[in-house]
């Protein structure tokens, strides 16, 4: 995998070698007129967006623009905040995820999440990765679990580094390794969508490059949504980009188009560094 | 990224979001169970609290009421003043034994006048109804009013603890079967007297302000003297622990340099905070009584022991309040040329004061309820029979403390004392409640957020 | 001169010194003084008081030792009656001396006759009885002589103390007034002094610890002089008898302590821990605002209340269920179970608020990580939060255990007095703390092994709780550092 393919390439030209184009275009999550309130504060206003399967979608925008808030709505992580209220429709494969009958636990098994700061549990590397499969009952026996763990660690591109010390604590790894471990942990539950909230902001440039490369690989199997404050990163890893500003979705489109030929003047100001 | 050898394989598709599978149902059930355990634990804690408080109140409220008999006593000059000259010295020679028959005759007369039928022929047979303390009360009154000798005076006389217990339901006809002090006839008499209005229950101020009595006069026992003992101890604690605690905290928080000695002090404080209170009692016994020959059972010694015990609490809370004052205040004072000492005493300390006072009150409340160390330095209940004469004797002469007095009552054989013990606890808890409310109000009123 | 007067004189000198120091700079005119005038006053007052009071305190502490030592030297071995000890004779001497003082102050005899009377000519016992000091036996000539010497030495000592203290006060005054000039840095001098006072206050914590250790060790050593160490730690019987021949083995007491603490923890830990989990993870802010303080009321209730609750409520209640009319396992209301359950109730808020703090210290990111994987709330708690908080919770439980071991009133009132090694939790047993109380509040002679054993028990208790505390605090600190 080289770094050039992400630069300006549109996914349709990147993927068809292995996958049918139909698959790529499929809508995974569609949000319509989403409003989010924190108590009295109106944090997200009228956001409508369609997120595609097997695509990396980047949310960019200045701090406090609501991009992380919106991301957390996609797997109902905001449920844990008492004062948060979500209105509008967010559908995953056509099912409203805020429907009363939806169990957030099942939802989050389908929509995994990776956080800004690497947060490995204070357990062994193995147990970190096995946590999700265990609670969801994905493995029938130890051998299966071993296999899942290995596959997840391989997909997290960290297998070679940790395969000899699966029993040592996950907190003992370096920052970049921890974040890749967290990604491996997230993919171990076989999610369909992977949400990443500024996954590289706590990492050094080398670790960032490794994680970015990993994201690009993950696109083969998942729909990845990444929040980032770095426009370069958005340009490098994503095929679609959404620009948020003051709680509004200002512009959404092909990454190449957003970065080279933005429609909205606000997008242009942000990209050229006038707001941020 | 050489280990990304995994080649694309479609992830396992999950089922619909709205239909939960069996496993999720099981997981959600276990979730619900877990929540219920948590609620049950809180419920259990609150249940114990309710049981404890209701046990205290239901058992102790009776101590605030006492049974009295209105007895007209003829102060017979023939026994009380043989010489007929009303000379106080002569009057004082008549001991309580001289008064007892007068009261018994008065009661006998009362029964006769009320037309109550009874088998008791002799005035002395009815003495089981009245408290042994009655004679002393009548004597004191008579000595204060010598001119009334020869008159018949109505006295509110304490009924004996058995009669009191009968009115309160503690003593029943079955329970006195083996009792040598009282028999069923006395209870009939009690009922009749009650009907006639001569015997009644009323508020018992003596319980709050009175002194402890001997083991045989539960009806007379009061908490007043030991309350004073506690009061003098709290004075000692307040005037020693507050300044020393504040001074120590200021030193540690503002001036101490990071060195071994400071660390050693800190380790000492945190360990002292967790040393069992009984060990402080041993310290008090060995250091203040054995070594320094301070008077045994004196509130000053109790106060010193409790001071040492509360100091760590006060230091810890004071340091927290000092720490809460932002450094910018210190910088501002230093910036206009104040010395470090001036910055602390003029600015930091006043700002931290509400927090310090709150912590001190909490520490005092803790000291007020402490019992074990006081037992070791001899502050036991039966000592609290006399009020201290003045300030010096308040600190120096033997006394008890509220919790020690309660312990003493709980140890006594007569169940009439249990009611006193519970009642004493109500008073103690009222004091603690007041102190805590003051602390909370202080905190609410002056709490400052930076 | 009584000490109170001496203190008052020094205080008056300090006030005068304050005024003098202030005046010297305010009336000097000319240049501005280095510090505010009050600082000059305080400087003088400080130099009057500090050395004088320091000398006073040291003198008061040291004089009794010197005098005791000298008077003890006057009593020969032969003069000690059969069955008595030097210590008892010395306390007689002190009583006689106090009695003579009292007699003089009441005008029963003159100061001269007090130091010259002889047992041959006067009935000292009768005389002292008149003064209000009752003696157990007649006063031997040697005791009287020693008492007179004791009085004489104390008298001389007090005289010299007065002289020294006043000299120091006046010297300090003169020195401080002389150094008071406009250039003198009075503020710095005063602040230096205050700093030393602050340090002294902080050092009281160390003094307290030293005091505890010394008073425990001193008397423990005396106990082991009278009673062998191996029997104390080796015997399984505890049967003190005041006539002598006691068996004072610590094991029954340790077992009782341990058993009661275990029951208390079995009650307190699950309830406290679940309550803490619920309060910190599930409860709405409103519920938390109510339930948490209510639970903490349990911690604010004095232990005497719990003791009474055990003795009069829980004990009888258990007896109706497990006693002769019920299951027949229980003989009396006071038992290990009674004390253990009540102590457990007392410890609930202790465990819950410590665990609450510790659970709250677990970073939110770990919770997010777990929810993000689709874990339920309880799975997150059981598999992520509690394991992460485990060291802290273990520390909290150890602190609670140390509390349970050191708790006195509940076991004194609820556990019974019989020292026995039994497995039945409905038997009465006793603990280390309960026996400390009973051995030191009984009628035992203070120098007998039956009383002194309390100090050995106290030492054991101190070492156990100190060890637990240090270990627990170490664990908790390590835990906190991990997430700071």
UniProtKB/TrEMBL annotation, chain A:
One of its GO terms (molecular function) is phosphate transmembrane transporter activity. SUPFAM superfamilies: P-loop containing nucleoside triphosphate hydrolases. InterPro entries: AAA+_ATPase, ABC_transporter-like_ATP-bd, ABC_transporter-like_CS, P-loop_NTPase, PstB-like. The keyword Phosphoprotein does not apply. Residues 29-271 form the ABC transporter domain. GO terms for biological process: phosphate ion transmembrane transport. Keywords: ATP-binding, Cell membrane, Membrane, Nucleotide-binding, Phosphate transport, Translocase, Transport. CDD domains: ABC_PstB_phosphate_transporter (cd03260). It comes from the Bacteria. GO terms for cellular component: plasma membrane. Part of the ABC transporter complex PstSACB involved in phosphate import. Responsible for energy coupling to the transport system. This is Phosphate ABC transporter ATP-binding protein, PhoT family. It comes from Salipiger thiooxidans.
TrEMBL record, chain B:
It comes from the Bacteria. GO terms for biological process: phosphate ion transmembrane transport. The chain crosses the membrane at residues 36-57, 231-252, 272-294, 300-322, 343-365, 421-442. One of its GO terms (molecular function) is phosphate transmembrane transporter activity. Residues 227-439 form the ABC transmembrane type-1 domain. One of its GO terms (cellular component) is plasma membrane. This is Phosphate transport system permease protein PstA. It comes from Salipiger thiooxidans.
TrEMBL record, chain C:
Belongs to the binding-protein-dependent transport system permease family. CysTW subfamily. Residues 254-472 form the ABC transmembrane type-1 domain. Part of the binding-protein-dependent transport system for phosphate; probably responsible for the translocation of the substrate across the membrane. This is Phosphate transport system permease protein. Gene3D superfamilies: MetI-like (1.10.3720.10). The keyword Coiled coil does not apply. GO terms for cellular component: plasma membrane. GO terms for molecular function: phosphate transmembrane transporter activity. GO terms for biological process: phosphate ion transport. Pfam families: BPD_transp_1, DUF3708. It is a multi-pass membrane protein. InterPro entries: MetI-like, MetI-like_sf, Phosphate_PstC, PstC_N. Its main location: membrane. NCBIfam families: phosphate_pstC (TIGR02138). Keywords: Cell inner membrane, Cell membrane, Membrane, Phosphate transport, Transmembrane, Transmembrane helix, Transport. The chain crosses the membrane at residues 40-62, 159-176, 196-217, 253-279, 299-322, 328-351, 384-405, 451-476. It is found in: Cell inner membrane; Cell membrane.
């Amino acid at each position: 995998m080289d770094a050039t393919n992400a630069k300006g390439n549109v996914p349709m030209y990147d993927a068809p070698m292995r996958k049918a184009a139909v698959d790529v275009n499929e809508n995974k999550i569609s949000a319509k007129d989403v409003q989010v309130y924190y108590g009295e504060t109106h944090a997200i206003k009228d956001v409508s967006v369609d997120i595609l399967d097997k695509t990396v979608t980047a949310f960019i925008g200045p701090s406090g623009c609501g991009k992380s808030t919106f991301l957390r709505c996609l797997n109902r992580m905001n449920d844990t905040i008492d004062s948060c209220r979500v209105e509008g429709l967010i559908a995953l494969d056509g099912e409203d995820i805020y429907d009363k009958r939806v169990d957030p636990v099942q939802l989050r098994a389908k929509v995994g999440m990776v956080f800004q700061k690497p947060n490995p549990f204070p357990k062994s590397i193995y147990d970190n990765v096995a946590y999700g499969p265990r609670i969801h009952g994905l493995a029938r026996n130890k051998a299966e679990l071993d296999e899942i763990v290995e596959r997840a660690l391989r997909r997290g591109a960290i297998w070679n580094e940790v395969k000899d010390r699966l029993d040592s604590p996950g907190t003992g790894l370096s920052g970049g390794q921890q974040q890749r471990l967290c990604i491996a942990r997230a993919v171990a539950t076989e999610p369909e969508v992977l949400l990443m909230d500024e996954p590289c902001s706590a990492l050094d440039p080398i670790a960032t490059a490794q994680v970015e490369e990993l994201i690009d690989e993950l696109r083969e199997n998942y729909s990845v949504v990444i929040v980032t404050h770095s426009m370069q990163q958005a340009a490098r890893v994503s095929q679609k980009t959404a620009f948020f500003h003051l709680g509004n979705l200002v512009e959404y489109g092909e990454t190449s188009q957003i970065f080279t030929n933005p429609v909205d003047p606000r997008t242009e100001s942000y990209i050229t560094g006038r707001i941020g | 990224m050489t280990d990304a050898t995994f080649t694309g394989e479609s992830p396992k598709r999950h089922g619909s979001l709205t239909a939960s599978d069996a496993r999720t149902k099981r997981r959600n059930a276990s979730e619900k169970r877990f929540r219920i355990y948590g609620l049950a634990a809180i419920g259990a804690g609150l249940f114990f609290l309710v049981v404890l408080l209701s046990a205290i109140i239901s058992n102790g409220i009776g101590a605030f009421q006492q049974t009295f008999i209105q007895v007209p006593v003829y102060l017979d000059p023939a026994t009380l003043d043989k010489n007929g000259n009303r000379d106080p010295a002569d009057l004082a020679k008549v001991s309580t034994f001289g008064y007892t028959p007068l009261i018994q005759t008065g009661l006998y007369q009362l029964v006769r006048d009320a037309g109550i039928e009874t088998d008791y022929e002799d005035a002395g047979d009815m003495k089981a109804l009245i408290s042994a303390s009655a004679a002393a009360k009548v004597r004191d009154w008579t000595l204060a009013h010598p001119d009334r000798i020869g008159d018949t005076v109505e006295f509110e006389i304490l009924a004996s603890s058995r009669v009191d217990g009968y009115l309160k339901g503690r003593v029943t006809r079955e329970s006195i079967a083996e009792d040598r002090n009282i028999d069923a006839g006395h209870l009939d008499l009690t009922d009749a007297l009650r009907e006639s209005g001569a015997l009644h229950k009323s508020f018992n101020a003596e319980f709050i302000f009175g002194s402890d009595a001997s083991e045989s006069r539960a009806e007379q026992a009061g908490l007043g003297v030991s309350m004073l003992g506690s009061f003098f101890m709290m004075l000692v604690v307040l005037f020693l622990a507050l300044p020393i605690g504040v001074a120590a905290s200021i030193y540690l928080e503002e001036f101490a340099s990071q060195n071994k000695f400071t660390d050693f002090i800190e380790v000492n404080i945190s360990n002292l905070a967790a040393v069992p209170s009984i060990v402080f009692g041993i310290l008090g016994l060995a250091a203040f009584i054995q070594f320094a020959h301070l008077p045994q059972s004196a509130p000053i010694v109790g106060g010193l022991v409790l001071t040492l015990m509360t100091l760590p609490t006060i230091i810890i809370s004071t340091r927290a309040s000092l720490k809460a004052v932002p450094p910018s205040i210190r910088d501002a004072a230093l910036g206009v040329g104040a010395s470090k000492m001036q910055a602390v005493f003029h600015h930091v300390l006043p700002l931290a004061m509400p927090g310090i006072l709150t912590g001190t009150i909490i520490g005092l409340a803790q000291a007020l309820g402490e019992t074990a160390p006081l037992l070791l330095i001899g502050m036991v209940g039966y000592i609290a029979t006399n009020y201290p004469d003045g300030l010096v004797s308040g600190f120096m002469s033997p006394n008890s403390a509220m919790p020690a007095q309660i312990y003493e009552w709980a140890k006594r054989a007569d169940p009439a004392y249990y009611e006193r013990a519970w009642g004493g606890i109500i008073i103690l808890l009222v004091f603690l409640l007041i102190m805590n409310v003051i602390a909370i109000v202080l905190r609410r009123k002056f709490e400052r957020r930076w | 001169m009584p000490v109170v007067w001496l203190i008052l004189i020094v205080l008056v000198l300090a006030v005068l010194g304050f005024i003098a120091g202030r005046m010297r700079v305010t009336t000097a005119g000319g240049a501005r003084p280095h510090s505010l005038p009050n600082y000059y006053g305080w400087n003088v007052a400080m130099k009057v008081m500090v050395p004088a009071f320091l000398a006073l305190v040291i003198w008061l502490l040291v004089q009794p030792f010197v005098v005791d030592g000298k008077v003890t030297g006057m009593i020969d071995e032969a003069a000690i009656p059969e069955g008595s000890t030097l210590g008892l004779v010395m306390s007689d001497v002190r009583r006689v001396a106090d009695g003579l003082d009292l007699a003089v102050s009441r005008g029963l005899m003159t100061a001269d006759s007090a130091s010259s009377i002889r047992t041959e000519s006067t009935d000292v016992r009768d005389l002292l009885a008149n003064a209000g000091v009752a003696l157990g036996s007649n006063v031997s000539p040697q005791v009287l002589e020693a008492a007179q010497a004791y009085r004489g030495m104390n008298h001389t000592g007090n005289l010299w103390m007065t002289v020294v203290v006043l000299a120091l006060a006046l010297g300090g005054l003169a020195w401080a007034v002389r150094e008071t000039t406009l250039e003198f840095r009075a503020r710095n001098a005063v602040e230096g002094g205050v700093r030393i006072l602050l340090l002294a206050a902080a050092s009281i914590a160390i003094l307290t610890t030293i005091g505890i250790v010394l008073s425990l060790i001193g008397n423990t050593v005396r106990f082991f002089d009278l009673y062998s160490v191996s029997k104390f730690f080796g015997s399984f019987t505890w049967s003190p008898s005041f006539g002598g021949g006691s068996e004072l083995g610590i094991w029954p007491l340790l077992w009782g302590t341990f058993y009661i603490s275990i029951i208390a923890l079995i009650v307190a830990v699950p309830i406290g821990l679940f309550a803490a989990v619920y309060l910190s993870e599930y409860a709405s802010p409103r519920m938390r605002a109510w339930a948490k303080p209510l639970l903490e009321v349990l911690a604010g209730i004095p232990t005497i209340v719990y003791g009474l609750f055990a003795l009069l409520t829980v004990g009888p209640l258990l007896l109706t269920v497990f006693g002769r009319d019920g299951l027949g396992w229980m003989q009396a209301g006071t038992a290990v179970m009674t004390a253990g359950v009540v102590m457990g109730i007392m410890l609930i808020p202790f465990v819950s608020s410590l665990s609450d703090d510790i659970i709250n210290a677990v970073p939110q990111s770990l919770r997010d990580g777990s929810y993000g994987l689709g874990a339920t709330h309880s799975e997150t708690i059981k598999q992520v939060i509690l394991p992460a908080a485990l060291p802290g919770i273990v520390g909290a439980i150890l602190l609670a255990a140390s509390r349970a071991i050191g708790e006195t009133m509940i076991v004194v009132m609820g556990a019974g007095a019989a020292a026995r090694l039994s497995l039945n939790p409905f038997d009465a047993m006793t603990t280390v703390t309960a026996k400390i109380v009973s051995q030191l509040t009984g009628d035992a002679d203070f120098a007998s092994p039956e009383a002194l054993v309390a100090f050995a028990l106290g030492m054991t208790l101190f070492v156990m709780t100190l060890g637990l505390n240090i270990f627990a605090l170490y664990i908790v600190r390590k835990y906190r550092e991990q997430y700071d």
